[in-house]
Amino acid sequence: MTTVTADPVPAPAPAGRRPKQPSRLRRSWDKHWYAWAMVIPVVVVLAVLIFYPLVRGIYLSFTNLTEANQTAEICTKSITGSEVCKANPNRWEFVGLDNYVRVLSGEVGEFWQWTAVTLIWTVACVVFHYGLGLGLAVMLNRPMWGRTLYRILLVLPWAVPAFVSAFAWKFIFNERFGLANSLLTAVGIDPVDWFGDWRTSLLTAIITNIWLGVPFMMVALLGGMQTIPAELYEAAEIDGATPWQRFKNITLPGLRPVSMTVILLGTIWTFNMFPIIFLVTEGQPAGESEILVTGAYRAAFEGIRNYSLSSTYGVLILSILLVFSVFYRRMLRKQGEVW
């Protein structure tokens, strides 16, 4: 006769103690392991390329690291040809907020002048980017002959590498051989030394950046316009609304989510737009058309390389953009935008 034995019943948990539950992270991994498997490589790449340099840069801003004091030992050749090494008495060290005090007080660099130029540069470029991009998007959103060709031609500047455009516009504004002065001479106006004054020098960079940035705004806003239901325009036209009223009461409100995003992105990109200033104006005259990012670059790679000072500029730039983003987001939330 076969004896059937029942499975052993697990012993009840001691009174007052609950069975140990897996952690929330463990449950998430068990349920969504495939998503974690796709995200982890991205996180590793971001950590290596962004997070580590960011943390390292913040740390260096609290030191006095330069090209001259970065080595732990100073080695020299002796008479016999052998190397004699001794400890570097000026080895870099932690200095706290000393770099920030020196920069903000104007002891080193031209932080406040560069900040003013950066704000002028950013506001002018973003205003013209958005205004011209919106105007072109409205034009290209209407039925017209050759609309596809116009779209391709207007997007073309966006496809050209920034450094190529920078060199082309720098040649256009050349004092002796540039197209701009040739046109002025043709109408009886004296040639202009475009890079001899900071205002005209900055103007050349702004024109170059407008030429480069308008296509992005145009494409983004055109895409936003095409999501606005056509029935709204038809109803407004039946009610007798003028084109300006339809634009003001339908197009602009419908574009608000897209507009807020592209304005924020345009501001951040323009604030950090290094190649245009560096290649077109080169900071002329005498560094008066420098912006913060080019000033940080020159501190790190020209003359005696001051890595700690450059890192300080980088942290200040990051802080300015973070503060702007926070207040910008609060402003959008007050206006009812979910962002």
Characteristic key phrases:
64% helix, 339 residues, mainly alpha
Detailed description of the structure:
It is a single chain. The protein contains 14 helices and two strands; from the N terminus they run H-H-E-E-H-H-H-H-H-H-H-H-H-H-H-H. It is an all-alpha fold and 339 residues long. The protein has a two-stranded antiparallel ribbon with strand order 1-2. Helix 6 runs parallel beside helix 12 (274-281). The longest helix is centred in the middle third of the chain and has 30 residues, at 111-140. The chain starts with 23 loop residues before the first helix and ends in a 5-residue tail after the last helix.
Broad shape: globular
Poorly predicted ranges (pLDDT <50, ≥5 residues)? none
Q: What are the secondary-structure elements, in order, as H or E?
A: HHEEHHHHHHHHHHHH
Largest sheet: 2 strands, antiparallel
How would you classify the helix and strand content by structural class?
mainly alpha
Percent of residues in beta strands: under 5%
Percent of residues in helices: 55-70%
Overall pLDDT score: 84
Q: Biggest sheet: strands side by side, in what order? A: 1-2
Number of helices: 14
Task: Compute the separation of the termini in Å.
Answer: 74 Å
- Specify Rg, calculated over alpha carbons: 30 Å
Task: Please outline what is shown here.
The chain has 339 residues and is an all-alpha fold. 64% of the residues lie in helices and 3% in strands.
Secondary-structure topology with pairs:
Blueprint: H1 24-31, H2 33-60, E1 73-77, E2 83-87, H3 98-104, H4 111-140, H5 147-159, H6 162-172, H7 179-186, H8 198-225, H9 230-238, H10 243-254, H11 256-271, H12 274-281, H13 292-301, H14 307-334
Antiparallel strand pairs: 1-2
Helix pairs in contact: 2-14, 4-8, 4-11, 5-8, 6-8, 6-12, 8-11, 8-12, 11-14, 13-14
